[in-house]
Amino acid sequence: MERIRHKVIIVDDNPISLSLGRNLLRSFYEVFPATSGQKLFQILEKIIPELILLDVEMPEMSGFDAIKRLKADSRYADIPVIFLTGKDDEASEMEGFDLGAVDYVSKPFSGPLLLKRIANHILLEQQRRDLLANQEALQDYADNLEEKVREKTAEILNLQNAVLNTIAELVEFRDKSTGGHVMRTQRYLEVLIKEMQRTGVYAEETSEWDVELMLLSAQLHDVGKIVITDTILNKPGKLTNEEFEVMKTHVSEGADAIEKIMSEASRHTFLHYALLFAGTHHERWDGSGYPVGLKGRDIPLEGRMMAIADVYDALITDRPYKKAFTHEVARGIIEEGSGLHFDPVLVEVFRNVEGEFARIAKEIVD
Predict the structure, then answer these.
(1) How confident is the model over 188-230, as pLDDT tens digits?
(2) What SS3 class is residue 321?
(3) Is the pLDDT of residue 81 over 90?
(4) Is residue 366 predicted with pLDDT exceeding 80?
(5) How do residues 268-314 score in pLDDT, each as one tens digit?
(6) Beta-carbon-side half-sphere exposure of residue 207 (alpha carbons within 13 Å)
(7) Of 44, 80, 165, 200, which residue has the fewest beta carbons closer than 10 angstroms?
């Protein structure tokens, strides 16, 4: 059976860059090159691609002008757009994301990196469309068709899980300093939840949790990093105060993205958990955290748990600004943060299972 070749339009007014991009992609995709924004829209009258690679700096119609026109046309609004740029300009990247771009790739681009990003975004768009189609189809079933409803629900859950996994992998692929972070934090949370259930800690709240969905949703706690510029996200060293303020926006950006999906989806229990993880895992027990400065039990329990998992993993792994600490040092920092950074009750739970944390950290490496 012949493999389906997805269509990709690459737009660049530089003939050398356009030729390089076309030659790189033609083995994997059906490629349509365009030398200007005007040519792009001429091609779109004939074919609808799965993705557009769009140069930012072009005469007559810039990449920003072109994406505004794309998003204003219902025929093209959902086509993922990856910007190609030779500029190292954080403000321009943020403007591009605000206009609807899904990613940025710097020129001259790395062939494997570009191919990986294209593949991820095409997969995400396919899964988004499939998920919407399945949700709409589910509404058509009659109440008495219980078996069909169960089957369709299972399909949606599987698709939902695939979307979560793909988005989490994309975030980790961009943030080169946190390999394995998502999987490890999931496992840490699982250990904490089991110990909380065993000992009756916060029993009223935990009794209402769908733990399986919660753990899947935890993968999205750093989803906002997808809009942080590469120059900050992968900076080989400590961030300046200004850069750290930009990095902190990944919390509100992640929460905003999840809320937008929730507003358009009819079923979003798993997104409720994701919203709490993404929006509150940097709050601190003493009120000195961000983005809101919540204090004590005003911080959702999900966020208080993720704070311990997230900080522990940051401590025991290499980061651009530090070497990995030992488990013993990390444990001591968590304990010292009891009542300041962390919920004291949850720190006691952590003490009971800190050996499990150490085992997970050794099992799951970058």
Answers:
(1) 999 999 999 999 999 999 998 989 889 988 888 888 887 778 7
(2) coil
(3) yes
(4) no
(5) 667 889 899 999 999 999 999 999 999 999 999 999 999 999 999 99
(6) 6
(7) 200
Number of C-beta neighbours around residue 348 at 10 A? 14
Tokens standing for 193?
Answer: 């939840």
Do the beta carbons of residue 223 and residue 270 sit within 8 Å? Answer: no
According to DSSP, the residues that pair with 32 across neighbouring strands are 9
pTM as predicted: 0.57
Listed as own residue / partner, the contacts of 115-122 with beta carbons closer than 8 Å and 24 or more positions apart are 115/24, 115/25, 115/28, 116/173, 117/82, 117/173, 118/8, 118/25, 118/29, 118/51, 118/53, 118/82, 120/166, 120/169, 120/170, 120/173, 121/51, 121/80, 121/82, 121/170, 122/6, 122/50, 122/51, 122/80
**Among the listed residues 213, 287, 223, the one whose alpha carbon sits nearest the alpha carbon of residue 256:** 223
- In a 3-state reduction of DSSP, which class is residue 352? helix
Q: Report helix, strand or coil for 107.
A: coil
- The yes-or-no verdict on residue 347 having pLDDT over 50 is yes
| Rama region for 324: left / alpha / beta (φ>0; ψ in -120 to 50; rest) | beta
- Which has the closest alpha carbon to 305: 201, 167, 176? 201
- The owner of tokens 């990449």 is 63
Element (H, E) at 144: none
